[in-house]
Amino acid sequence: MLQIVLQNLIPAMQNAVMAVIPLAMLLALASKEQQGKIKKWIWRGIVWGLLGAAFIATAKLGSKAVKREVFEGMVLVAGLFGETLLLGLFFWNIRRGLSLGKDKLLGGAACLVVATLLLYHGLEVILFPINLFVSATDPASMDFLLQISGFLLGLFLTWLTGLAVFQAAKVLMPKKITSILALQLAVIMTKQLVILIQIMMARKLLVIKGIMSIMGPIINHQAWFLYVLLAATLLLPVALFLQRKPEREEGLNPAQYRKILIGLRKKLRWGAVVTLSLLVVFLFSTAGKSYADEKAEIVPAVPVVAEQGQVLIPLEQVSDGHLHRFSYQSSTGEIVRFIVIKKSGSAYGVGFDACEICGATGYFERDNQVVCALCDVVMNTATIGFKGGCNPIPVEYKVAEGKIMVEAAGLEKEKDRFK
User: Fold this and answer.
1) Strand 324-329 to 335-343 pairing
2) Cα–Cα distance between 291 and 399 in angstroms, integer?
3) What is the pTM of this model?
């Protein structure tokens, strides 16, 4: 039971917290601006980002016209532009001693950053419960309730972390908030750039000899971006605790001064909550994930046959987040292998057990990651089902009636790869 909860809690939390932490820092910084103009821009970004993510999620569910790679690529480019502009304007205004609220361009940049963060991460958060419901064979079952509970608990932990970060950050001076926020955005921008390069490589828009040897290790350890973001955010309680005790101002009586000190101690408690929240997120992302994926094992190819031209695979057979291999005997005797994996708890990646570069050497699972058997490159699970690079060659499929449906004709078409 705990594994089911964790398998849904962890991806929801990891995805949402990458957007919520910088958003909380931005709101804390905006609270320092008396006119409230920056805060209005940020809230516009929140509304536009969430509405945009809901619109794309609806469009994606209702049509195949939405290409997720293209959408994510566009959002990442816009996000990188907004974050670069925002950081430049922050430091420019603070260095010149200007009020943040007087710079309309800064407000627009903050709006763009928030909107793109929520568009990118919000889409997955919205699709997550929808796909849980679609793939459920019995929405009243205990497994489904545990899955939904895990998802909601992940969002609750993210909300609590964001609230603590906001309350702790707004106690600090704008320069300190900006410095920590700059570190956080640098981490996020680096991850966005890696994903963008990965998409360009998969689409063959970026073909550079030897780039895979550089990008491979980075792609294989993308979880480290979350850990670095948590470490950067840990500077927040550190800065809070290092603040000097306020001097007693002239004219204050002892009771008034004690009241100020009591107020300060209350604010320091939020620093402790931030530390605890970050620790919880880290433990769930490391030890918790290791436990959630504990039952991982290499699954041999399971023979399947076509019924009325279609191979049917029950969703509950492949919904554990691990790699599943299937074998189909073609009309001329070739054993055509294909793989199925549930991606981040929200979608399925279906591809041949072969790629354009390494041929039909296939894939296996190691430490909960899909690895090419020939070149040992670890696949980004999110890109399985897309063309390019060492990705499995995509297999056309659809999900209906609790099953993945693969056309036998599509498997027959690629049978020569497995001779």
Assistant:
1) antiparallel
2) 29
3) 0.67
